[in-house]
Every structure is written in structure tokens, then in C-alpha cells.
Amino acid sequence: MRRPFFREKIFLLGLLLTLVLQASSWGAQIVVLQSARIPAYDEALQGLVAVLSQDIPKRGQRAIQAHTITTHILSEAESTVQLRQQMVEAQPDLLVAIGSSSLSLVKDLAQVPILYLMVPFPEIKGESRHITGVNMNLSAAQQLEALAAAAPGVASIGLLYDPARSGAMVDEAREHAARINLDLVTLPVRSAGEVPAQLARLKGRIE
Predict the structure, then answer these.
(1) What is the pLDDT of residue 2?
(2) Rg for the chain (alpha carbons), in Å?
(3) Strand partners, 34
């Protein structure tokens, strides 16, 4: 399922990289901070390298130097403090954060442009103009359409959600469910301890 996702995002990634690096000449110094060695993050890095390698003439008058990419694995670092300081001292043209932990470590480094990948909930403040990324979030409408296509005979679906994080998305889901004649039963969950009781309340009410 991950590969179609990256194929759909490849154009957006290329556009973001063009915008982030527009002030730099080709041959930019790029530092990648990857949260851990897991297949999804490895694949994101491969996609990044593929985009950066496109349209780089190797010969002739227009030949240009390829980007220099240095990769660090956050989960393998002896000291996150030292690793963060390395990011500061390197002063790269672009810092790529793959995974939520990586973004959390570097997102306040305002002196360097940051591109994030594989971060479901980036939680970037509006004033953080040095940060951009590929949004992984799917709209509630897209998710419901996918569920309806996967299980066309189901007419009622249960949804447990955290109002503090997902309230707006659930409102969107309710509206779209009504439009496609789907009964969406929503119950709030504010802590892990509430989950069993709320699941019990869904029994007999959903398919």
C-alpha cells in the first residue's frame, strides 16, 4: 500500500524541494535526519534521493554537481543533544526530517529550511515559515469513501475519537457520512481507560 502513496506524492515532493532550494545552486548540502531504520522511512528516503537525482546533467556545458546528502538515524544516536548540535553546526542548505521524532528534535531550528516526510500530525505553528512538508493526512471524506468501497454492504460504522485532536475531522466525517447514506456512530474517548466502556456502548449499534 505504501508504494502507490509515494507515486502520488512524488510530484508534490519535487515541487516542495524546488521551492525550498530555489535560493541555492545545485550541489546543495542536504542533511537527512531519519527517526529509525524502518521500511516506510527507508522508502521515503529512497523517494527523496530519486527526486533529487532528477534532471541533473552529468555532461556538457550545463553539467552540475549533484547534491551532497548526509543521513543520520535518530534512534541510533548516542546523544540527541549532540546530534541536534551537529545539525546546527552543519548549516545545511536543507534539513530533511523523516518521522515525527526527527521533526520534534529540529523543528525550532529557524536558521535552516526544513522539509518533513512521514509525519502524520506535524503540529507546525503558523509562524514556522522555515518548515514545509508532504501532508500524510487524508480527509474524512476520503477515508469514508475507501471504507465504503472496501465494504459496500456495511451501513453503520463506529468511530472512537479524541475530541481534542480529531474533533474537526469527525464533524467533517459526520457531514460526509450523511451525504452517502452511511450511519456513523461517534463516541468521544479522552483517555485510554475510556476505550473498553465506549467499545461496549457500540455493541449492537454498528456493523
Answers:
(1) 44
(2) 21
(3) 73, 98
Q: Greatest CA separation found in the chain?
A: 72
Residue 107 CB coordination number (10 Å)? 20
> Could you give the CA distance from residue 91 to residue 186 in angstroms, rounded to a whole number?
47
Under a CB-based contact definition with an 8 Å cutoff, are residues 183 and 177 in contact? Answer: yes
51 and 11 Cβ atoms separated by less than 8 Å:
no
The H or E element spanning position 134 is: none
In this predicted model, what pLDDT tens digit does every residue of 12-67 receive, in sequence order? 566 566 555 654 445 788 899 999 999 989 988 888 888 777 655 555 544 445 67
Cα–Cα distance between 118 and 65 in angstroms, integer? 28
* Single pTM value for the model: 0.62
Which domains occur in the chain, in start order? Answer: 2-133 (3.40.50.2300), 140-202 (3.40.50.2300)
pLDDT, tens digit, for every residue of 162-172? Answer: 988 888 889 99
Contact between residue 36 and residue 97 where contact means Cβ atoms under 8 Å apart = no
Annotate 94-136 with DSSP letters as a single string. EEEEESHHHHHHHTT-TTS-EEEES-S-----TT-TTEEE---
